[in-house]
Write a structure and sequence with these properties.
Elements lengths: L2 E3 L2 E3 L8 H19 L1 H6 L3 E2 L5 E6 L5 E7 L2 H6 L11 E11 L12 E6 L5 E8 L17 E8 L2 H5 L10
């Protein structure tokens, strides 16, 4: 009996590696797969978690303000975002984590309250701000965000937060 892999048939006696070496390679490849395919989701699991399985991360700003942001690191959580919620509690936000840096555009469809939206690069530097972004009242909804600056993270907070904390492009955020 042999092993069939991608159209090749190997007899165990003529396989190029010993079974011990093959096991080590398999473990390394599996680890590499999870590191490359699921890096954000795995890292987000190290953050705080509520009783409902929602992941959170504390985010600090240069003025000393800290908020607790819900993590949106999977396609379905990023797509849903803050839609259909009645409000955003004080001191909270939502941190969208993307697998690669791009000039992501956001809209406010089905959002019931205005937001300040911050785009952050891989160094957690603010690259774009959309302050006091209004909910979308009719289709088509306008899109907000950078056209060229690449962001790895997008942070949504209550409208007025940017003004209150005097956030500006180029400032760093810690989390």
């Amino acid at each position: 009996m042999g092993v069939h892999s991608k159209g090749l048939f190997f007899r165990p006696s003529v396989m190029p590696h010993s079974s011990r070496a093959l096991r080590h390679v398999s473990v390394l490849l599996l680890g590499l797969y999870f590191h490359l395919v699921h890096p954000i989701h795995l890292s987000a699991q190290t953050h705080g978690q509520d009783g409902k399985g929602v992941l959170y991360k504390d985010i600090s700003f240069q003025d000393g303000t800290t908020i607790r942001a819900e993590i949106a690191d999977r396609p379905e959580t990023r797509q849903r975002g803050l839609m259909f919620r009645d409000r955003l509690p004080a001191g909270s936000g939502m941190l969208f984590i993307f697998p690669q840096a791009e000039p992501y555009r956001f809209w406010m469809k089905n959002c019931k309250f205005p937001l300040d939206i911050l785009w952050l690069n891989a160094q957690k530097e603010i690259v774009y701000i959309s302050a006091n972004t209004s909910p979308c009242l009719s289709d088509p909804c306008p899109q907000y965000g950078p056209t060229q600056d690449r962001a790895l993270y997008v942070l949504e907070v209550a409208a007025g937060f940017v003004k209150k904390t005097r956030l500006q492009r180029g400032m760093r955020v810690q989390f």
